Amino acid sequence: MADLTWVGEAPKAGELGDWPALHGPSGDRLARICDFVDAAALFAGSATVNVFDEWPGPAKSGKGDAFPMRRARRLADEMRAGMAGRVVLVGRRVATAFGFAGIPPCRWEDFAGLQVAMIPHPSGVNRWYNDARNKATVAVFVRAALRLSGEGA
Known about the structure:
By secondary structure, the chain is of the alpha/beta class. It is 32% helix and 15% strand.
């Protein structure tokens, strides 16, 4: 596996199963924030995976997507065994599934031989990115993560 792995939630509704993780609208939004053309350019040379292989359905509240946490934790435990190097968890729900509830954004933490960080999910409903300072923080963090892993930026 690559030295830098990005972990997203799940494909969105209607995404093709053979699309790489994080290469949809949210990945493209993150790429634009970080001054890349698109998700393919941002994640070139990195591994990208989702906690769920398929869209888990709509949230019971009707807002956003479901994220069955018990299942997500089990899948995260299975995924962690095959990871090495640096891991960026995309979104608080992914961070919680991996056992990092409350981890501050854009800061590396040491965990069992891994360097783990979380960035807020770049979905259209995440208001964290409405603040220009937060966008700048993520852009600097992402570019530094790519440089540390020898993947450009």
